[in-house]
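W.,

You were right to be curious about this one. When I first looked at the sequence I had no strong expectations either way, so I just let the prediction run and decided to look at it fresh. Below is the sequence, 211 residues in total, followed by the output.
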Amino acid sequence: MGKIVFIIMLLPVTLIAKGQDDQSLVAKGNELYKKQQFEKAAEEYQKAADLNAKNAKAQYNLGDALYKSKKSEAAEKAFGEAAANTKDEVAKSKALYNRGVTLSNQKKLLESIEAYKESLLLNSTDQEARENLQKALNELKKQSQQNQQKQENKKQDKQQNQKQPEQQKNNSKLNEKQVEQMLSALRKDEKKLQQDLQKKNNTGRSNSKDW
């Protein structure tokens, strides 16, 4: 969902002595990135971030390289750290936007929506962030409707399953009643048959005469 913003943050001309090690690693990573050696570039950026956990440039570029290496989850973390460590609102907005993209790719819609919102709060003119926010909201609504439909289907299935035993029970009762009626009818027929036989025997008996 959406495209990521690739900005390889370059080093300042003047380097502070304390940060030379991590900055030189970022520079090396940039060279590898330009050669499209993204995994190797990510290794250099990671080294720089390990040396200086507050180096937002290293973390942002690490996110870029990891995303190019199809490692969305790791890229998301790197962009989140870059956003947290930079005071530059433009850079922070782009890092948050990129984090939103990686979250969308992972189907983490609620988190991606929050990332896009935070990005737009810093840069309300970012049209891509606005469009991606709308896409994420639409996708979330679609998922919600699908889940609601699934729940409704489950409810209907449950109700249907509850009705079937009841119907079987009623059918069983009906069959028992029918059987009882048949037995009762048979008893009546048998009684009538015995009565008819008795009448016949009585009618057919002759009166004896004495000779």
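Here's what jumped out at me. The chain has a mean pLDDT of 82. And, maybe more interesting for your project: The domain at 1-181 is CATH 1.25.40.10 (Serine Threonine Protein Phosphatase 5, Tetratricopeptide repeat).

Coffee later to discuss?

I.
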